[in-house]
């Protein structure tokens, strides 16, 4: 916003001058001034103009980084918190999945160890039977005299 040309800084008639409503700071404006012609009241036009001035002042502050930076930091901090929460949830789910897999593998390992012991016992028994059968066969063939 600029001061009107030719007015003193200490005068009572200082007026703020706005750029045209259709273009400010290189951005086209989507807002326009109300028309006082055609039955609009002066009070309504004045209130609308005041709202427009406040809107543009806030927009200007945000563009300069005055008030918008705080909100932007708050939004970014909130998004970071949400992202961290999602990351922790994914990590927790992954750890639970790994723990379940460990339980399954330990159970499978125990079953395989038991099966291995049974097979070793069966192999030892079969070997003992084979040795006994071989000894009996040798004894029956070696008892013949020549």
Automatic annotation (TrEMBL):
Its main location: nucleus. GO terms for cellular component: nucleus. GO terms for biological process: abscisic acid-activated signaling pathway; positive regulation of DNA-templated transcription. It comes from the Eukaryota. PROSITE patterns: BZIP, BZIP_BASIC. CDD domains: bZIP_plant_BZIP46. GO terms for molecular function: DNA binding; DNA-binding transcription factor activity. Residues 1-41, 60-90 are annotated as: Disordered. This is BZIP domain-containing protein. It comes from Oryza sativa subsp. indica.
């Amino acid at each position: 916003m600029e001061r009107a040309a030719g007015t003193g800084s200490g005068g009572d008639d200082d007026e703020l001058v706005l750029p045209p409503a259709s273009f400010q700071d290189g951005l086209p404006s989507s807002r326009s001034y109300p028309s006082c012609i055609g039955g609009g009241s002066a009070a309504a036009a004045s209130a609308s103009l005041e709202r427009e001035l406040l809107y543009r002042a806030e927009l200007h502050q945000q563009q300069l980084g005055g008030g918008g930076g705080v909100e932007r930091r708050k939004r970014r901090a909130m998004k970071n918190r949400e992202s961290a929460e999602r990351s922790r949830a994914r990590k927790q789910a992954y750890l639970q999945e790994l723990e379940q897999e460990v339980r399954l593998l330990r159970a499978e390992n125990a079953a395989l160890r038991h099966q291995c012991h049974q097979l070793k016992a069966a192999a030892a028994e079969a070997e003992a039977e084979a040795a006994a059968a071989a000894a009996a066969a040798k004894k029956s063939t070696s008892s013949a005299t020549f």
